[in-house]
Each structure stands twice: as C-alpha cells, then as structure tokens.
Amino acid sequence: MMQTTHRANELGSPTPRASKISFGARVLVGSLALAILGTTARVFQLKAYPSEQLLGSMQRDSGRPIQERSVVATHPRGGILDSRGRKLAVDTIGGTLFVDVRDLYRDALARAITLEKKARRTSESDTDSPNSAITLATLPTDLNPIAELAIALETPLGMSRAAIEALIHARVPDDVRTLRRSMQDDDWKRLKRYVVISDDLNEQQIEAIALAKREGGPASVLRGAVIETRPERILPYGLTAAALIGFTGFDAMRDPVTNEAVGGQRVRGLSGIESTADPRLAPIAGETAFIVDNGGSVMAVPALSHIPGSAGHDVRLSIDIVIQEIVERRLKETVAKSHAGGGRCIVVDVESGEVLAAFDTLRTGSTYANAVEDKFAASDPRLARLRWVTDPFEPGSIFKPFVWAWSLELGKARPNEIIHLPDGPLTVVDGRARRTIREAHSSSYGTKSWHDCLTKSVNAGMATVAMRFTNDQMKACISSFGFDEATGIGFKSETRGILPPKDEWTNKTRALTSVSFGQGIAVTPLQLVHAFTAFCRDGSMIPLSITPTAATSLRGAQPVISAKVAQTTREVMQDVILEGTGKRLKNILVYTGFGKSGTAQLVNPKGGYFQDRYMSSFLLGAPFDQPELAILVTIEDPDKSKGVTGGGALAGPCAAEIMNEALEYIGVPTNGELAYGEKTSDKTTDKKRVARAN
C-alpha cells in the first residue's frame, strides 16, 4: 500500500524543482509575449503616428528621406546663334591637367621595385644567361619620373617635353627633381601634390590624354597626371560680338525638385545675352533617386524616381556675325587712326527693326585721358558694358533732323523759308533772359533758308525756329521720337536718356533752344538710331529687336510724322552729303544715301564743356530710294592734333565704309561706281574747316 502511494506521488504531483522550472518558463514566455506585443504596438505607433522630432531626424529639410540619394545628370547649355544660324557661343568640355608629384614618385618607385624583384628572380633562375632582358646591373640608381611623364604627355597635350618639364620643375625643389633611393620622409613631404600643367585644356586634348592613359594601363606613368573636367563656354568667332554675347560663370548644381545644392557646377549667364536669355539657355538637370542602407549600398530604386532632364534651348539673335565683324574692324581702325578715346556703332534693318550689329570700344593709352572708363572690359572683353545701350550722351547736331522735321509737321517752318540771321553770334531773348548762340565756323553765320539750316548745320537757325515752339510742343517732339523712354530691346541695363530738368523750361532761352541743336539733352545710341528709322520709312518708327522678328515688319510700327515730312527730311539729309557737312561721303558711298553729322563738345565732369574735346558722330541711311539699313557711328574724344574731329570728316566716312560693305553683303545691287559720281577726294578742301565741320 505504501509503495503504491509513493508511485502515485511520483507520477501525479510535480516535484518542487519541476514546479520552479515550469513557473520560470511561464514567466519567460509571458514576458516575451508582452515584449513582442509592446514592440508591435510601438512599431505601429511609430509608423502610424510618428512624433515631429522623429520625422525631423529621418528627413532632410526638403522632406526627402535621409537615406535617399540621387545622381544628377548634366545637360549642355543652349547655344547662341546669329541671324543665319551660325554658332556664336556653345558648350564644350574644358579642364585642368595637374600632377601629384608625390604620387608620381611613389608609382615610379613601385615600378622600380617590381622590376628589381623580376631581375632578381631572373638572375637566380638563369645564372648562365648574361643576356636576360632585365638584370640588376641595368636598373638605375636614381629615377626621373618627371621626364618620363613629359615624354608621355608631349603628343596628346601638344606641348614640348621641355616646356612640360619646366612647368613641373618650377614647383619642385632642385634636390628632389629626380627620385633617389636615399630620399627621406622630409624629402617626400616637400613634393607638391597639385602642380598645374595646363588649366585650359580643350575637349580634343582631354580625349587624347584619356586615350593615352587607357593604352598605357594602370602601371603607366600617366597615372600621375590627373584631369579635372568642367563645362566651358566657347566663342567660335573669338571676341567678335563678345560683349554682346556676354560672360558665364558657375553656380552650384541644384536638385531640380527641391533646389538643394547637390554638388557639381552648372554654367550661369552673368552678362549680355548669356544673362538676359539665361532662363531659356539653361539646361534642366536630370536626376535618378535611390535608397541606400547605412553602409551606403544601394537597396532600391523607387518607381518614377528618374527625371530625365533636358538640354537648354538655343537662342537666335538678329545679329549677323559678318556685319558685326565689318563694324568692329572699321570702328577700331577709325578709333586707332584718330587716337580717339573710343567709339560706338549700331546697324539696324529699318524694315524689321532687327539690330544686325552693335559694338563699342574704348581705347587705352590715348593721348587724352579717357572721358569714359570700363574697368570690367579691361579684365575681359566679354564683361564690357554695352555702352550703346547704357551710356547716354549729348548728341549735338545729329539731333537737328528730329527738330527740323517736327517744325514741318507742326507747320512752324517751310523748307525754302528764309530764316533771317545775323552775320555773327545770335542773341535770343525771352523777358530778362538772354542767350548768345555761336556757330562752329564762320560760314554758318548769316541769313539761310530752313533747308540750309539743316544741311549746313546752323545752330542759330535751329534756335530761331525753335523759339516758335511752345515748351509742350518741344517736349512732344522729344516724346514722339522716343527719347523719353527706353526702346525695350530686352536688356535690363538699358537707360532712357536724360531730359532737361523742369527749371530749364522756365524760359525759351534755355531748354527750348538748347534741345534744338542737341545740347541739354542726353540720349543713348540705341534711341538715336531707333528715332532715325522714321526717316528711313514712311514716318513711322519700327520697334527694335535683338532677336529675329516676324515677317510683317509693319506690325507694331509707331507713326511719328507724316510720310511727306519723312520724305522731305530725307531729301534734305541727302543734300547734307551732296553739299553740306557730309560732303566727304560723296567720295566713298557706292549707294545713294542720306544722313546728318554731329560734333558735340564733350561734357566736363567738373561742369560745363571741354573747349577742345568732341564727340564726332554720323547718322546714315541707304539706299536713298528704298532704305535698307540705318547706321550710327560715334567717335569719342578724337585727338585734334590729327587734324580731323568733325562728324562729317571722321565718323561719316567710317559709317559710309560700313554701309558699303554691309549692303553689298546682304545683296543690294551696285555697279561698284561712286553713287554721286565723285572719283577722287576734294584735294582743295580746307583741312581746318573740315575738321571743325558739324
């Protein structure tokens, strides 16, 4: 009986030890279950209702996951083309070639050690062969990796070995220009790690060096030459139209979605067309996003994570690079011959309003201190200020045709009307105000017809008729020809000129008379040639454009004067060339033309005017019967010791030469003979009179 009970205890009731184990197991399982449940709940909470702090730690400022990476793909910037599609500015790859001299020496030493080991093996295995390719005896004690590199770079770089060695030697101490086996740590530290061999590699040089490195393999001496590539903007026509095209710099490459800097650089326009057209020229960077783990390895590429990007759009200009070259060549020649401080020129198609060429130059080292300076142009011509857009000047007598035509439009004078003038300076009076008006040369004094007041450029005649105007009528003349506003050609830097202040209109002896012969008002070259298109057309001014315009040129034309007045004024301006201040053009023009000269005194920055420094200018249109082009040339501060400073004698011939070449280039027929039958220059022309001609 007792034995049976004992077995029952063994089989039915756990021992104390078993109970403890069972209890512990239940506690452990329960704890694990609670932990799993808690973890699950926490994960759910983190996913469904994460805290702001957690979200901030997992995301960038842009809202993208912190483990997301992206690769940005660059695309070329749009090109700038001339009116006929010729490339004026295009993207290419440029770069800098440098050498890490320390790495170059290490590689050379490693190659030498490899050769030495090979020589030892050869020597030990074939002691009976004294003609083995490599022996210990043939190994050099000192190495010259710089010379080896120069030899390897000579052909792909297109630079002589001596020149390459000289560039590197200039940055390497004399005593370590060869690699010695005995070099110490201090010697190694003196080796430069960035020695530039060339910082203006072109695309062909980059490709040639890369090919040589591939052919040489990883053990080649060229491994020590490193190329840093960068996008570059090149001008296929050199510096022709450089200031107009403009300058580019670099911006940090940015994420196309978030605008965050992502490394790399993109070209950005800083001046000229490169700046004004930058939104269209600039490419859209492509991007591919992917997810990485903590080690940086790619885990996944999300769907729709690739943005292809696109190249920039080309921008076509109205500029014709051939006419631009003609302008630059002729203007520079004239400025140089006259020792002038500078010059400006604009060529406009009078039917479309397209600017076909525009250029300005400043000459350094002229005999007179320049009245105008452009420090940026001195550093790089592409940074030059577009002075034909930005810098107004007192026009002088080239302003007279606008007032002359306005007098006909208002009925204030007739072409053949006799204007009674004194044989000396004219004194105009308005109340107590008096003003004396003088002429540039004595032949302009005395009674003249209104026709001759323009052809002979008579200041007193212009002032006499201007006294018949009211202030509002003269202001309307200024406004109607667009001298009170910018042309809207598209440059942010364009100015609208400087008009007489209010106090100058208090009596007729001041602004009213001054403006009639181009003083007391400042206008830009762009405004002048724009207004002049009214005489080249039917009395309407066509809006100017730096880009090609629509075929219908009449669209947007602004009527200013009647077609009859425009034709009459054009005829009188032809007489300026036939018998007036522009007579020198008869010996140059192979096309009939019309125009007006000007010789304005330069404004003294300290007040008043210089008595012996001038702005020589000429406005010219041609051919007479069906005008195609309008040209303005200004020559600033010519050296009077050269004997020629007048607009008709200096700027006029330059404008005529440009007109001849430009019209022939665009296909306007000519028989090659002088349009006005003059075969030789007038040798009897008094030089002093011509030099002072208006």
Write the layout of secondary structure elements.
Blueprint: H1 2-12, H2 16-48, H3 52-58, E1 68-73, E2 80-81, E3 87-99, H4 101-125, E4 142-143, H5 145-157, H6 161-169, E5 179-180, H7 185-189, E6 195-201, H8 203-216, E7 225-234, H9 242-245, E8 248-254, E9 261-269, H10 272-276, H11 278-281, E10 286-292, E11 298-300, E12 306-307, E13 315-316, H12 321-337, E14 342-349, E15 355-362, H13 375-379, H14 387-390, H15 400-410, E16 418-419, E17 426-430, E18 433-437, E19 448-449, H16 450-455, H17 459-466, H18 471-480, H19 511-516, H20 525-536, E20 540-541, E21 558-559, H21 563-579, E22 594-603, E23 609-622, E24 629-636, H22 647-665, H23 687-691
Parallel strand pairs: 2-13
Antiparallel strand pairs: 1-10, 2-3, 3-6, 3-7, 4-5, 8-9, 10-11, 10-12, 14-15, 14-24, 16-19, 17-18, 20-21, 22-23, 23-24
Helix pairs in contact: 5-6, 5-8, 12-22, 15-21
**What's the N-to-C terminus distance?**
151 Å
Largest sheet: 5 strands, mixed
Structural category is: alpha+beta
The first-level CATH class name of the largest domain: Alpha Beta
Number of domains: 3
Number of strands: 24
Shape, please?
elongated
Helix content: 25-40%
Give the strand content.
15-25%
Q: Residue-averaged pLDDT, rounded?
A: 84
CATH H-tier superfamily of the largest domain: DD-peptidase/beta-lactamase superfamily
What does this structure look like?
- There is one protein chain.
- A hairpin with a 6-residue loop joins β8 and β9.
- With 694 residues, the protein is α+β, with helices and mostly antiparallel strands.
- The chain is elongated, with a radius of gyration of 41 Å.
- The C terminus is likely disordered.
- The longest helix has 33 residues.
- The protein has 3 domains: 101 residues, Penicillin-binding protein 2a (Domain 2), CATH 3.90.1310; 144 residues, no CATH class; 371 residues, Beta-lactamase (3-Layer(aba) Sandwich).
- The strands form 8 sheets. Strands 2, 3, 6, 7 and 13 form a 5-stranded mixed beta sheet that branches.
- It contains 23 helices and 24 strands.
